[in-house]
Amino acid sequence: MRSVVSQISGPSRWPLLALLLYLAPLLLMEGCCYAAPSGPESDSCSTLVQGRFFGFFLSSSALPSMPCSWTLQNPDPRRYTIFLKVTKPTEHCVPSQLRTFQYESFLETTRTYLGMESFDEVVKLCDASAPVAFLEAGKQFLQMRKGLPRAGKTMKDGDGDFKTEYLVVGKRNPSMAACQMLCQWLEDCLASSTSSRPCGIMQTPCTCWEPPPLLSEGDSCYHNGVYLENCLPSMKESGKNAEMN
């Protein structure tokens, strides 16, 4: 750089020097703030999924080695929400081997996840009492990271295999196909939830159940503001409805 500037003589040298002084801090700043979305670059195996709104994978294919990571990027967290369904392994599950979390970005220089939020307590991969886990994520990235087992434990190929399905659903005007799948997930999630293991889906942009019909207080199937299920109106009320029709 010094030899190039020395060859330029006269007043034209100063604009070039000013340009170099202006660009140098920007180049340094770019190096300091470099971000790797999928996490540490030292991992020998990583997958970053972008521009996909639904799909699935098996851990044996997406996370074939250790350490390894699979990351799904939300195209716009202001407009979309990520929903995940994890079908847990039936055997040979190793606790603390898989981590599931969402975050905003990863800084390579400091090896820090910004805005990180763990889903390990929601997934509970080795909890056989709930064979399926559901969760929703609203940040920029959702990652599943497979780490090395604890000391003294060995792993074989194919052990602890599990399946993961994902949906990226719009917060406004979601598609009918996405809502059909998401409503089925929500129904299964609520059916298996308990006080110690609540459903991981908090809210959906879809209307999954039809609201009950609006009835008057005089209807025998409507009592104290509650619509009674499996209830048939009295013969007197049926006659009134027939006359009105």
Automatic annotation (TrEMBL):
It comes from the Eukaryota. InterPro entries: AGRB_N. Residues 43-212 form the Adhesion G protein-coupled receptor B N-terminal domain. One of its GO terms (cellular component) is plasma membrane. The gene is LOC104957498. Residues 1-35 form the signal peptide. This is Brain-specific angiogenesis inhibitor 1-like. Keywords: Signal. One of its GO terms (molecular function) is G protein-coupled receptor activity.
